[in-house]
Every structure is written in C-alpha cells, then in structure tokens.
Amino acid sequence: MKFTIAVLPGDGIGPEITQQSVKVLKAIAERFEHEFKFEEALVGAAAMDLFETPLPDSTLKICKNSDAVLFGAIGDPKYDNDPSAKVRPEQGLLKLRKELGLFANIRPVKAYDKLINKSPLKAENIQGANMVIFRELTGGIYFGEKSTSEDGKSASDLCTYSVEEIERIAHLAFQAAQKRSKKLTLVDKANVLETSRLWRKTVTSLAKKYEDVTLDFLFIDNAAMQMILNPKQFDVILTENMFGDILSDEASVIGGSIGLLESASIGNKYSMFEPIHGSYPQAKGKGIANPVASILSAAMMLDHFGLTEEAKLVRNAVEISIQLNVCTKDINNDNHYSTEKVGDFLESVISDIDDLPINDENLNLGQMTII
Ligand SMILES: NC(=O)c1ccc[n+]([C@@H]2O[C@H](COP(=O)([O-])OP(=O)(O)OC[C@H]3O[C@@H](n4cnc5c(N)ncnc54)[C@H](O)[C@@H]3O)[C@@H](O)[C@H]2O)c1
Ligand SMILES: CC(C)[C@H](C(=O)O)[C@@H](O)C(=O)O
Ligand SMILES: [Mg+2]
To answer: Where are the transmembrane segments (predicted)?
Structure first.
C-alpha cells in the first residue's frame, strides 16, 4: 500500500528520535512491500529561525497533503527562559493541532514487567497497570482568549468548552472502553469549574448509549494521587486538555520513563502521531534520548492505516529490545545503547525476525543477537 507521511522533526531531540522512527517505518515498508513517501518539514524553533513563524504555511500544506503526520518535539530554552517572547515554538504545535482538527489525543500507559523496578513506584502497585488517557486537544484553557493588562499586572486565560467538543471525544473514549475493560473515568474539577460541570453533565448523558461501560468520576487532584497510589484501577481516562497534559506526564512514571510514551492525535480528517515528551534540550545531540516513544507513535500510525500486523511487529520489536536491555540510559543505567543503536536494533529485528504473524509463541528471544 502507498502512504505519504509528513515528518516534522522539530527541535532538541526531535530530529534524532524521529530519524529512528523513519528507519523503523522504512524497514516495515520493505518487509511488507509498502510504499511510504516521507515529506520532511520544519516546525517549532527550527522553523522560526528561517521563517519567523513556528508553523510556516508550507509545513501546514505538506501535513494536509499527507496521509498522516509524524511529529518529533518542539521547544527551545531561549524561548522557555523569555516570558516576554511574543512568538513561541509551542504555538506551532498548538496551531497545527487546531488547523488539523486533532481533537482527541490518545495516550496509552502501561507498566512493562521488565522495567517494573525502574519506576520509583512500588512494584506491587504498578505491575499489570494498563490504561489509556483520552485527552481533549483543541479546546479548553489552551485555546481560550488570552490577555495581559496594559500595566502588565494581571493576565487571563479563558477556559471554554462546548457540548459538541465534549461529545466527540467522549464517544471515542466510550468506544475504546467497550473494547477494553469497560470502565471509563472522567477526570475533572466539577466541584469548582463550570466547564467541568458541563463535562460531567454531557458525559453522564452520553453514557446511556454505552450501557456496557461503567462510568465513574474523579476530581483531578484526587486522580493525580490515585495515579501514584493505585494506577491499576484505571482503564480509560477521559479528561480535558490541560488535566490530560499533566496527568499523562505523571502516568509515565508507571512505565519507567516518559521516553516510552507514545500518542495519537486524531481528528475527523487528519491524524498526527507524537511522543508525549518534549524536546529535552539537555540531551540534544548526545545520543541519550529514548526513541521508543516516537517509534511506538509510528506503530499507532500503522494501526491507523489499518496495517495491524505491521504495527504489532513494531511493538513486538520494542518488547524484544526491552527484554534484551537494548535501551537508552533512562531505562538502562548499566550498559546503555545510544538513540541510534536502539533504532538500528529495532530495524534489524523488523527486517530479520522469521515467523509471521508475530505472536507470543513464535517470538523466540533466544535466537536474537544483539548488535
Ligand atoms: N510535544 C512537544 O513537542 C512538547 C512536549 C512537552 C514539552 N515540550 C517543550 O520541550 C521543552 C522542554 O520541556 P520539559 O523539559 O519540560 O519536558 P521534556 O519532556 O522535554 O523533558 C522532561 C524530562 O523528561 C525526560 N525525557 C523527555 N524525553 C525523553 C526521552 N525521549 N528519553 C529519555 N528521557 C526523556 C528527561 O529526563 C527530561 O529532563 C520545552 O520547550 C517545552 O515547551 C514540547
Ligand atoms: C508543548 C506543549 C504545548 C504540549 C502541550 O501542552 O500539549 C506538550 O506538553 C504535550 O504534552 O504535547
Ligand atoms: Mg505535555
């Protein structure tokens, strides 16, 4: 099959991790005889250096003309440390999500048995944890009207949600719950916020259409604590934009590293696949960034294309790399592999593994050699 993929490496570690995903996707294309065409474009601070905007029209056009977008990361300390900067790399990502109508950001979180002791959380509390966070992505406080008073002494960010914005992501979250353990937790702050009360009302009413799903509610402050105390209670979490951003970074501690957490940003027409982490500027060019979050995002892209077997192979290759400790230093302190070496290893697993379809029985770890 033929697909055009827009590749937006961005800033910091963005280019080095994205390069590994492209490598993996090329190996998939070769093995399964697909044709993937990669169209690279600038975004974030990298685009600002040349175009003075973090999302040039040419980049947006490439994204809209592609079947999917593979996004790296954006952000640069020179803007992070300058609160008065009028244009910021992050605006490029936000505009891209808005322009492409990517209202649902899907962030799976799980504990890997092999990495259970890498997490600072107690093994017995996290073993078996497996959830998916549905984060609303194009509304709420991120996109409400913003202002600063003339004297610079006060500022405002408006948080607005409509029933329609809530319903469209809630449908997706309910449907995901139906395919999983049939539990949906709405995380909000309905004891304080009017927007959260609209979320509760809307989701409660929608629940009548999904009678096989158990709906419960948690306030965000309690949810943040429950995520650490007892993450196994969660199946599907549905939440608004900012709560989802914060809760998913927190949840990454369960898996052992934020460098493992992938995501899919979905709309009615377009889709983008992005790790949940940022541009980790301290690691830029050092070869220490974990490329797996980006590579698993690419696997979500393959699923989105309907290439289920291919996506499974990528995920299995990642499992093998974790089993064999072919990992970057965030999860392998003793004998760590570089960003590129992890990518090379996954590429070779994808190219060389013998038996397809992949399943647990024919995954023979003993036969794998580590490069
Ligand atoms: N989607 C995005 O592009 C995105 C997301 C978050 C932050 N940002 C931007 O990134 C910049 C840095 O932000 P930050 O430091 O708060 O967050 P960050 O996610 O870049 O890094 C936070 C910490 O997470 C760990 N980490 C992140 N990615 C990793 C990887 N691939 N492998 C191993 N460890 C990894 C590192 O310990 C790092 O210090 C800022 O400019 C911010 O705005 C962008
Ligand atoms: C960089 C920033 C705008 C972004 C967000 O808050 O959505 C990031 O933290 C993320 O999680 O993708
Ligand atoms: Mg974030």
So the answer is: none
Ligand nearest to the CA of 242: 2
Q: Is the CB of 330 under 6 A from ligand 1?
A: yes
Residue pLDDT, tens place only, 116-153: 998 999 999 999 999 999 999 999 999 999 999 999 99
DSSP string computed for 93-161: HHHHHHHTT--EEEEEEE--GGGGGGSSS-HHHHTT-EEEEEEE-SSGGGTS-EEE-TTSS-EEE----
Position in ligand 2 atom list of the atom nearest CA 263: 12
Q: Which residues surround ligand 3, an ion (CB under 5 A)?
A: 245
Q: What is the pLDDT of residues 263-318, one digit of tens each?
A: 999 999 999 999 999 999 999 999 999 999 999 999 999 999 999 999 999 999 99
Is the CB of 255 inside a 6 Å radius of any atom of ligand 1? no
Single out the residue of 325, 312, 336, 328 nearest to residue 365, CA to CA.
Answer: 325
Q: Of the bound ligands, which one is closest to the alpha carbon of residue 137?
A: 2
Q: Is 31 annotated as a binding residue?
A: no
What ipTM goes with this model? 0.99
* pTM of this structure: 0.96
CATH number for domain 106-147+155-266, candidates 3.40.718.10, 2.160.10.10, 2.60.120.200, 3.60.40.10: 3.40.718.10
For 1-102+268-371, CATH gives: 3.40.718.10
- The Cα 263–Cα 209 span in angstroms is 27
